[in-house]
Design a protein that fits this description.
By secondary structure, the protein is of the alpha/beta class. It is built from seven helices and seven strands, in the order E-H-E-H-E-H-H-E-H-E-H-E-E-H. Strands 3-2-1-4-5-6-7 form a seven-stranded mixed β-sheet, covered by helices on one side. Strand 1, helix 1 and strand 2 form a beta-alpha-beta unit. Helix 6 crosses helix 7. The longest helix has 26 residues. The radius of gyration is 16 Å and the shape is globular. The N and C termini lie close together (11 Å). The model has no long low-confidence stretch (mean pLDDT 97). It comes from Dyadobacter beijingensis. It catalyses: N(1)-(5-phospho-beta-D-ribosyl)glycinamide + (6R)-10-formyltetrahydrofolate = N(2)-formyl-N(1)-(5-phospho-beta-D-ribosyl)glycinamide + (6S)-5,6,7,8-tetrahydrofolate + H(+). Catalyzes the transfer of a formyl group from 10-formyltetrahydrofolate to 5-phospho-ribosyl-glycinamide (GAR), producing 5-phospho-ribosyl-N-formylglycinamide (FGAR) and tetrahydrofolate. Pathway: Purine metabolism; IMP biosynthesis via de novo pathway; N(2)-formyl-N(1)-(5-phospho-D-ribosyl)glycinamide from N(1)-(5-phospho-D-ribosyl)glycinamide (10-formyl THF route): step 1/1.
Length: 189
């Protein structure tokens, strides 16, 4: 059985879609959800889905080897970032080379990097007059949004679109594609 750990800092809608995708599968298990935010909506979703939650703070994440140790002890095959807002430290990246992925709400390399997440990305896309946006699923390295690209999907951005309109289109792409791409990655391993 392939085991997934999800890291999330926010509402957890992508985490929920991933859990639902694999819910009836005997060959894949979403084993743990990690969060650094004790107020994150992902916690309620995890409880509803009966997925254990691991809480951690900044010090534990950046200055200890505790998180990689938990992942290795649990036999995690793939680490999935789903709305996780912290830069992953080298100790964790090195523990899971090419076994950690992220989804970004834009077509990288555009609109990536520190501070470019969620609404900030969609506002930048609209303010720049882009005609398309989308999602990028990529491997995680030690820099924000710079890992090798695995998959991209596009959506149209019209002159009338607001940042909220773009967000809705991008979320639809995330929900459709992220679970499927995770499945494909696991199948190849």
């Amino acid at each position: 059985m392939k085991r997934i750990a999800i890291f999330a800092s926010g509402s957890g809608t992508n985490a929920e879609k991933i859990c639902e995708h694999f819910a009836d599968r005997e060959d894949v298990d979403v084993s743990l959800i990690f969060t650094n935010n004790p107020m994150a909506g992902v916690i309620k979703r995890a409880l509803k889905l009966q997925v254990p939650v691991v809480f951690f703070d900044r010090k534990t994440f950046y200055h200890t080897g505790k998180i990689p140790q938990i992942l290795q002890n649990e036999g995690i095959d793939l680490v999935v970032l789903a709305g996780f807002m912290m830069l992953v430290p080298p100790v964790l990246v090195n523990a899971f080379p090419d076994k950690m992925i992220n989804i970004h709400p834009a077509l990288l390399p555009k609109y990536g990097g520190k501070g470019m997440y969620g609404h900030h990305v969609h506002e930048a896309v609209v303010n720049s007059g882009e005609t398309e946006s989308g999602i990028t699923i990529h491997y995680v390295n030690e820099h924000y949004d710079e890992g090798d690209i695995i998959f991209q999907a596009k959506c149209e951005v019209t002159p009338a679109d607001t940042a909220e309109d773009v967000a809705r289109k991008v979320h639809a792409l995330e929900y459709d594609h992220y679970p499927r791409v995770i499945d494909e990655i696991l199948t190849r391993r």
